[in-house]
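Sequence in, structure out. Go.
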Amino acid sequence: MIYIIIPVHNRKAYTRQCLASLRRQTYASFTVVVVDDGSTDGTSAMIQAEFPEVVVLSGTGSLWWAGATNLGIQYALDRMPADADAFVLTLNDDTQVPPDYLTSLVDSWQNHTPCVVGSISVNIHQPDQLLYAGTRLNWFTARFTDLARIMYRNQLSQLKASNQHAIDSDSLPGRGMLIHRSVISMVGLFDAHHFPQYLADLDFSIRARRAGFPLRVSISSLVYEHTETTGLSMDKARSWRSFWDSLFSVRSPVQLRIRYHFARLHAPSPPLFLLADLGRILGGYLVRRLRR
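Output:
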């Protein structure tokens, strides 16, 4: 049994498309749990009318990604059968997946267990544009190396031509992460206190890896992303004011608070990592400004 946990907030159209793609799955044993964290656009009513098989849990608008995901995971844990393999799959509402998606994830887990399985992702508007295929993390330079870009030039066709089945990764994103319940039993839930919106998925996957669960990105498990709605758009140049505000906003992946906690909890030398991380963030912004 797979419990698919999808946190949502005021993106009814994207949520509808995501749920429609899940309804077409060839894998039969799954339950979709949507955590609607205070939507005001009629998302919950739409789900109840069009997808009555989906479980809807409600939040007040203050759960953010990690809190909403944890609420869904706890719902799943309370209902998982005790004598069978059971999984949680974290997924975002601005994604769509092909009909064999769940089957491919479970097959990959069976081939590499024990592990946590991640998904490759592509741009839904340009399906050969590879967005994610694993990450290498340098704890001394704070550099997150994007394997999709470095190894495969952001081309899905190049990745497929490599004839690999899975890629080892140092971390995994939450958009398509299959987690066996034994992993959650050992490492706990997502850290909603330190990472309410961003980096909770990286933090969780790193904790899982250090607990003895390798992180495998399944080449056959494909997620289509709406890049215009995600943190991937952070590479666009912005005003000085908006950049400054992003350093203190919970809605930002470069918020200083979460970068500090990530360094403190994971880096061998937190001050060195944090200094390099902030230098990379500022340097990247300056380069984008100069290119405008």
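Check: Residues 74 and 158 are 39 Å apart (CA to CA). The longest strand covers residues 215-225.
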